[in-house]
Structures are given as C-alpha cells and as structure tokens.
Design brief:
It is built from 14 helices and 5 strands. The chain is globular and about 50 Å long. It is α/β, with parallel strands linked by helices. The protein has a domain of 176 residues.
Length: 306
C-alpha cells in the first residue's frame, strides 16, 4: 500500500470527527473508511454489531463487520488500551492491533479521536498522512452540556445525588476526559500535577476546566508529534461556515475527494479560540504555553486554507 493510500483524520470529542467520517465515507466509495478504530468499544466482541448509534443516529460500525469474523476477533484480541486509556506502552501490541487494518490492499482511512499519543508510530512506521480536526473548546463544552440535558430525568437525578456525595460535577465524568489526561501524563508527564489527587478533585468540580485540559493535552500531543510543515488542521468553524475552502484544502493535500454538499452551512466564529474565558482557564490550568502553541499551529493552517 502506497503512502497516498492511507490517511488518518483525528480530533477531540465533539469536534466534528463524525461529520468528517461521513463525508469521507460517502465521497470515497472505493476506500475502506473505519469509524473510531481506537474506541474502547473495539475491545469487546459484543459491540461489533450493526445498530443505529443513539447520539449520532447513524450505523457506525458496519465497516468492521464487512471485514469478516476473523478480523473482528483479532481486533478484540489485540486491542491495546487498558481501561480505555488511549496510550499503550507496549508498542508491539499497539502495532499488532494496527496491523489488522492492513490485511487487504484496500485504500485505507482511519477516523479517530484517540490517536493523539501514537501519532509518531502511525506516521513513521505505517506512513499515514494525517489531518487534525479541531473545534474551539467553548463550543465543545456547550456541545457536551447539550447532550447532558437530553439525558432522561432519572439519570440526571442519580448524577446529581452522586455530585452531592462526591463533589464531582456530572459533566466532568460524562465522557472520557480523564483517560486522555492520564494518557498525556504517561506519555509526556503533562500536566505535572495530574498525580496530585487533591488537585484532581478540584478539577472535577469544574467541568469546563477538565474538558479544556483534555482538549489542550490531546491537541498539543498531536501537534508536537508532527513535523511543523506537515500539520494540516481542519477547524470545525471553517468546515461549517466555508466548506468549499475545506474541500479545496483536503483535495489539494491528499488524493481524496471531499464532497461538502451534505454540510448545512452556518456561521461559526473562529475568534472563539481567543476568548478571555478560555485564555484565563488555560492559565489557571498552568497550560497557557501549550494552548498558545496550539493556536500558533491553527493560525498557520488557516493561512494555508485561506
């Protein structure tokens, strides 16, 4: 398989990765496009079934089932992430898992939101070309709040009682934010205070801060593991407000087709990344330098897109 025949599209939760996967799948019928190959569900055989996902209202795992029973069994056997934490110190096991996606000669696209800490291996050992999907952390947070509000009343009551008992805000534990932060700590020892249980308890009381911390360490790791001239960022704000620009950018930097006709065009402010609320929170998290590093790479990509 040639380098131009394999691509990785990676991004933080609620950043538009599913929209991009849907576009890639429908635009490139001759390619094999896998939805979230590093998702914790891939470590259990019972999750490999055809069903409509409750949140996304789409069938997401169909491509895996198409590959046959042996493929599924191997993925379950070699799934590399213990307890869902998306970092594997055992490089041989991680590579054995990724090897399963190369059992045929199909052109390959992996759409992931957990490849942040293994990008170096995926690029150097497998030759993946990568794109990063990013969305401003304020709207990522708002998206999580919207999902939480849709939960049924009984679940909300249970979560609220848990909050009263532990002081942990329901939103802080709603997704797998702490697993991304733990992965960053294991890979980069970042943030240094993550092994301080008292500090963790304070973070869990403020869901915006823990969501932002997960956002920063994940995107920071991705961009640090890239060569400067290779970083290609697809901002969600541009995907939805100016899809033609994104289409041109993707097609100029790959041999993929990117049909944006399915996107409902709407306004989205790229300036949200520099809102005082975010900058202040990043500073309090002692991650201001890392956040500004991400913004500098975003700025360069925006210059290329426009």
């Amino acid at each position: 398989m040639k380098n131009d025949d394999k691509y990785l599209f990676n991004g933080y939760y609620r950043s538009g990765t599913t929209i991009v996967w849907d576009i890639l799948k429908n635009s490139n019928p001759k390619w094999t496009v896998f939805y979230e190959p590093l998702n914790p569900r891939k470590g259990s055989r019972k999750n490999y079934k055809k069903y409509k996902h409750k949140l996304h209202q789409q069938v997401l795992w169909e491509e895996y089932i198409k590959q046959g029973e042996d493929f599924v069994e191997k993925l379950v056997k070699y799934y590399p992430f213990e307890n869902g934490i998306p970092y594997c110190r055992n490089t041989k096991l991680f590579k054995k898992y990724i090897d399963q996606f190369f059992k045929n000669d199909n052109k390959l696209i992996l759409q992931s939101n957990r490849a942040f800490f293994h990008l170096d291996i995926l690029k150097s050992d497998y030759g993946f070309k990568s794109f990063h999907i990013i969305r401003n952390p304020i709207n990522v947070y708002k998206s999580f709040k919207k999902i939480y509000k849709k939960r049924n009343f009984l679940k909300k009551i249970k979560k609220y009682l848990y909050y009263l008992k532990t002081g942990i805000h329901p939103l802080s534990k709603m997704w797998r934010f702490e697993e991304l932060i733990e992965a960053s700590f294991r890979k980069h020892s970042l943030p240094l205070y993550w092994n301080n249980d008292n500090y963790k308890k304070k973070l869990y009381k403020d869901p915006f801060k823990i969501i932002l911390l997960g956002w920063i360490v994940s995107n920071y790791s991705s961009f640090k593991l890239e060569r400067n001239d290779e970083i290609k960022i697809l901002p969600y704000e541009v995907i939805v407000s100016n899809p033609i620009r994104i289409k041109t950018f993707v097609q100029q930097n790959s041999n993929l087709y990117f049909n944006t006709n399915m996107i409902k065009k709407r306004n989205s402010d790229i300036k949200m990344y520099k809102k005082r609320k975010v900058m202040k929170a990043a500073k309090k998290l002692k991650m201001k330098t890392e956040y500004e590093f991400i913004l500098s790479k975003l700025e360069k990509s925006l210059n290329k897109i426009f």
